[in-house]
Amino acid sequence: MVASNVSEAESVYDRERQLKALDETKAGVKGLADAGVEKLPGIFIHEQHRLNKYTVLESDSSIPVIDLADIDESSSARRAVIEKVKYACENWGFFQVVNHGIPVSVLDKMIGDIRAFHEGDLEMKKEFYNREFLNKNVVYNTNFDLYQVSSSTNWRDTLNVVLAPRGPKPDDLPAVCRDVLLDYADRLMNSLGPTLFELVSEALGLKPNHLKDMGCIEGFLLEGHYFPACPEPELTLGTSDHSDSGFLTVLLQDQVGGLQVLHDNKWINVKPIHGALIINVGDMLQLISNGKLLSVIHRVRANNVGPRTSVASFFRTHLPPENSARVYGPIEELTSKENPPIYRETTIKDLVEHYYGKGHNGISALEFLRIN
């Protein structure tokens, strides 16, 4: 860390130098782990008052788990699931689903092949290393907000793939994870995703296709994260406090753990369930539901046992020009004279640009859209 007698200008310069040095290796955090670092470089050290702003609830409490079995065969089972989805989205912003229709073998291979990419040949990974998030379909790097001074660097590398509405050619994807990535994404976009949006629509008291007809399911971004074992996990994070910017997120994680959800001003550990998928409400869904559904702050703790591998899939348009002009605001059916809109209208493009501009700073991107 920078000594206290170093001027602020020198301190910023030193940080920028360290960031640039890390970026130029194109090896990410994995490169540092492979080099056997025993002390965290200063850019990774988070301020303790931010790390410990909320206490961690050390108990068996966790996010709701919802069984999707029989929702297409039994109207009573479907109604029961809709009520559970409604409760989870309104009170937690998170839930896990089981019996979701995607074989465990596919989930395990997805995790395994994303891990294989990150642990693969460096020269292969360098072919995908880039910082042009909003212009390319396939990007690998470390920390999308690496150069933002307000953010401490996270102990994480990521493979980003935009798959809809304008996806890459199959040959543009890393060969090591290409087949399962396309298979998994297809199952989310064309089966589980539509089912989830139907359930959420009905949970809001709307027709099943309401959110789909609004275009909420048209965009799809997948991020394959890799969190190496960290030498000083108590000083940093795998992913800083943040909410997600899209409509819905589907998270597949391995069994290492580390995901925490902020609930009643306490961090709740999300226990991995093999074969389950984690679903959470994003900022755009909170906005169009007029705050009825919650896009909740969450984070990932660093660990010393890793690596941890996860795959986050976001239902949200990412690349222009698709959906760039479509304006979203609180759904008319969910507002009234007694319940007026609490957010201004926005385009996904404008919200995403604001989101990427601020980085993972623990503040919801919706704050700048709130009507005072």
Automatic annotation (TrEMBL):
InterPro entries to which the protein is assigned, alphabetical: DIOX_N (IPR026992), IPNS-like_FE2OG_OXY (IPR044861), IPNS-like_sf (IPR027443), Oxoglu/Fe-dep_dioxygenase_dom (IPR005123)
Gene3D superfamilies: B-lactam Antibiotic, Isopenicillin N Synthase, Chain (2.60.120.330)
Entry's transmembrane regions: none
SUPFAM superfamilies in the record: Clavaminate synthase-like (SSF51197)
Keywords, in A-Z order: Iron, Metal-binding, Oxidoreductase
The keyword Membrane is assigned to this record: no
Coiled-coil segments on the chain, per record: none
Entry-linked PANTHER family: 1-AMINOCYCLOPROPANE-1-CARBOXYLATE OXIDASE HOMOLOG 1-LIKE, OXIDOREDUCTASE, 2OG-FE II OXYGENASE FAMILY PROTEIN
Entry similarity comment: Belongs to the iron/ascorbate-dependent oxidoreductase family.
Protein name listed in UniProt: 1-aminocyclopropane-1-carboxylate oxidase homolog 12-like
Organism: Ziziphus jujuba
Annotated gene: LOC107422930
